[in-house]
Amino acid sequence: MRLPCCTFAAVLLVALAGPVFSDEPDPRIEAFWVLLHEPAVVEELKLSAEQQSRFTTMRDGWDLRFFPLRNQKPEVSRPTFAALVAEAREELKEVLDERQETRLREVELRRLGTDSFLQPEMEPVLKLTDSQKEKIRAIVSETRESLQRAAAKAKEEKTPQKQLEGRLRTLKIGEQRKVLDRLTQAQRDGWTRMLGEAFDVTRLGRPAFRVPDLIDSGQWANSEGLASSSLRGKVVAVHFYAFGCINCIHNYPAYLDWQSRYRGQDLVIVGIHTPETKAERDIEAVKRKAAEEKFEFPVLIDVDSKNWDAWGNSMWPSVYLVDKAGRLRFYWTGELNWQGQTGEAQMRKHIEELLTEPAP
Known about the structure:
Elements (H helix, E strand, L loop, with lengths): L6 H10 L10 H9 L3 H7 L3 H18 L7 H19 L5 H15 L10 H4 L3 H28 L3 H21 L3 H11 L13 E2 L9 E2 L13 E7 L4 H16 L5 E7 L9 H10 L6 E3 L4 H6 L6 E5 L4 E7 L9 H14 L4
Parallel strand pairs: 3-4, 4-5
Antiparallel strand pairs: 1-7, 2-5, 3-6, 6-7
Helix pairs in contact: 1-9, 2-5, 2-6, 4-5, 8-9
Organism: Caulifigura coniformis
InterPro entries: AhpC/TSA, Thioredoxin-like_sf, Thioredoxin_domain, Thioredoxin_ResA/DsbE_sf
EC number: 1.8.-.-
């Protein structure tokens, strides 16, 4: 059986990409949201200069509403996020023409992988029987559980990332074959038509999100203050921490290495100290600890957690890498090298990638 070009990669991306919110009940909400932030998708739509300007402005506004949802309770975040995505779908209709809307929908179906078979627009095309629908749901559910077990086992055994990706790829390819085996040839042909022209989904996996501006508390260590506008054209490593947090302290060697390794290059490290305990609310103590640890970079003292909430941060420590255009490209929550993980090496690699990119 010959499968549509690049479909394996599409379903693999779904397996490897972390959800926007845990337990997100509708994969299409998340898929659409991420695709709006993929440069390859925007390029595929062939927007005019006017369309590009309108789209970028709209998307930036959505992003600034999205970030604060990240640390909200699920009963708040999920419906609010769903409403935001629904609003984005409607507003996009004012920007895209019919051809562009169709192409975005085709790429979205590719991104959904096997979840695409049960989407409403597929109903009149595939005309699945109740038995087929039941079997497809069972296959998808079984694969999801297998992916979770594989990821958990890999974490326990400290399996290298590439080896884990190979296992996940095998599971997703097997899932798609099982689903297609339950379709007639006419149904398979209909599904292929709905996917449209070939799209190289290996270009996906590079979403960029507009980050919130720094909210100046008026209290800084190692700086009189920074405005986000002054950071454009620089790669920015933003790390949220609290000086009494042992996991945060374990990340300090990485920050000290970056401030030395990339000295004189277009990297700016910004610490955001958000207190967890009463002692950590002492501004002079924050400054003293920063000096003791030999931090040379600016630290924004976020006593009232305004930056923490604007970013929707939820864990000490968390590290975000922002590109020269002011967009989030990579992040790591928790201790970088926790129990053999390679967060420090991965983030260093990403920093070097971002440094090679031209300024906007």
